[in-house]
Specification:
Blueprint (H helix, E strand, L loop, with lengths): L6 H4 L12 H4 L4 H8 L5 E4 L6 H11 L3 E6 L5 H10 L9 E6 L6 H5 L2 H5 L3 E7 L3 H4 L2 H4 L3 E4 L5 H18 L3 E4 L3 H8 L4 H14 L1 E2 L4 E4 L1 H7 L12 H15 L3 H13 L4 H15 L6 H15 L5 H13 L5 H14 L58 H15 L1
Parallel strand pairs: 1-4, 1-5, 2-3, 3-4, 6-8
Antiparallel strand pairs: 7-8
């Protein structure tokens, strides 16, 4: 309809006190609040999930300064758009300079980001960029070094409840009706918004569009409708973004930390998003890296679970993967294998190597002009199937890479070989 404004835009806060959450940077003594109130606005990068107030704060800053606000979204903007803004500098259109709000800066390539450098350095353009990706990976160093980074945290459900309630009041006022909501409607919407206030507001707006109107012209908001408009909305997931790698990292660290409940939670988040391959790869890695020699059978068991999952596909794949994750989280842990190989690789990269001992070389070299035969001792012919012999190159003959872990499996092996070697 003509002149229609989305509810999320209508409800947008006009002052810092009205911004939801972010008390650590926008509270009474928050650093960002003090910077804004000083009036001396530096180049800044706002980093955090969507729906956490980045755009709102940028607009509040623009209104408090004497600078003309220009907005670009890097997903659609081009170098020509930047040149248009630069062309307006030092004209009547921008008497106090430009405050450029650049949303999703990670989508600008190096040339596009560098085109701003001269102007943000001389102060003609004050850049406020936002990104949902880690700026240290997504933004080029030349921009980073000229900017201050502020992190916006994901909102809690408790912080979003009053946002949803206010959205309902404004939605009712806009169409001149009253409303009544079943208990738990706004709490449910807040819980399902995944920390995104905009999602919650959009859910309320959709709820009003679909809600039944009672005879007295009151809109009736039901929990059933709230469930319908909020389905799957709590999922915050991007297969190429920070969320993807954060969830995978949390899955592995929960397994390593022997917390089966947390591990199952992060597996569920991946599977709910339809991602089957990523958890399969990570739990195979965890079986070898974190459990490994403490319970060697974990590796073939997890491999069997992964094979079953890939053959079954979703949703049935959740069954073998849940078994595998709980097995790994509750299994004894050992990182002695990865520690050993990393130590060996470190020596190699430092140039510590040498010829393979003659005793270990290929037997086909024997009698081909060498002064002596190989002299290899076949361990299987000796008591305990072991004989003292040098296996490492001379330069590394005293190197020790592997240390037995303190778990039952490795300590049993250590005890066995200590007895054999002493004998």
């Amino acid at each position: 309809m003509p002149g229609y404004r989305p509810l999320a835009d209508l409800i947008r806060p006009k002052s810092l006190d009205d911004v939801v959450g972010q008390r650590d940077i926008l509270g009474e003594n928050g650093m960002l609040r003090r910077v804004i109130e000083s009036g001396q606005i530096p180049n800044m990068i706002f980093y955090g999930p969507s729906g956490t107030g980045k755009t709102t704060v940028a607009q509040i800053i623009a209104e408090r300064t004497q600078r003309s606000l220009r907005r670009l979204n890097a997903t659609t903007a081009s170098l020509a758009d930047i040149k248009d803004i630069i062309g307006d500098l030092d004209t009547l259109l921008t008497p106090g300079g430009v405050l450029l709000y650049l949303d999703e800066i990670q989508y600008f390539n190096k040339k596009q980001q560098q085109s701003l450098l001269e102007f943000i350095e001389n102060g003609k353009i004050t850049l406020i960029a936002s990104t949902t990706e880690n700026p240290y990976f997504a933004v080029f160093n030349a921009i980073l070094s000229r900017s201050t980074i502020f992190e916006f945290k994901q909102l809690t459900a408790e912080e979003i409840v009053p946002v949803a309630e206010r959205a309902a009041r404004l939605a009712a006022e806009r169409i001149n009706v009253t409303y009544e909501a079943e208990p738990g409607v706004f709490a449910y919407i807040a819980q399902k918004s995944g920390g995104d206030a905009r999602k919650a507001i959009n859910a309320v707006e959709l709820l009003f569009s679909a809600a039944s109107v009672k005879e007295d012209s009151a809109v009736h908001l039901t929990l059933a409708d709230a469930r319908a408009v909020s389905q799957r909305s709590a999922m915050r997931y991007d297969r190429d973004g920070d969320d993807h790698y954060d969830i995978l990292s949390a899955l592995m660290k929960s397994i390593r930390g022997s917390d089966p409940d947390a591990a199952i939670h992060y597996l569920a988040r991946l599977l709910e998003a339809g991602d089957l391959l990523s958890p399969c790869r990570r739990i195979l890695c965890s079986a070898c890296e974190d459990i490994a020699l403490a319970y060697p059978m974990a590796i073939p068991i997890v491999k069997a679970c992964v094979d079953a999952a890939t053959q079954l596909g979703l949703p049935e794949a959740r069954l073998p993967l849940a078994d595998a994750v709980i097995l790994l989280a509750t299994a004894p842990k050992s990182n002695s294998g990865i520690t050993a190989i990393d130590r060996a690789l470190e020596d190699l990269r430092r140039g510590k190597t040498g010829p393979i001992p003659r005793e270990l070389q290929n037997v086909h070299a024997d009698g081909a002009g060498f002064e002596r035969e190989q002299g290899y001792k076949y361990a299987q012919s000796y008591p305990g199937h072991w004989v003292r012999q040098q296996y490492l190159p001379d330069a590394l003959k005293d190197a020790e890479y592997y240390e037995y872990g303190d778990n039952k499996s490795e300590q049993t092996a250590k005890q066995y070989w200590d007895t054999i070697k002493k004998a």
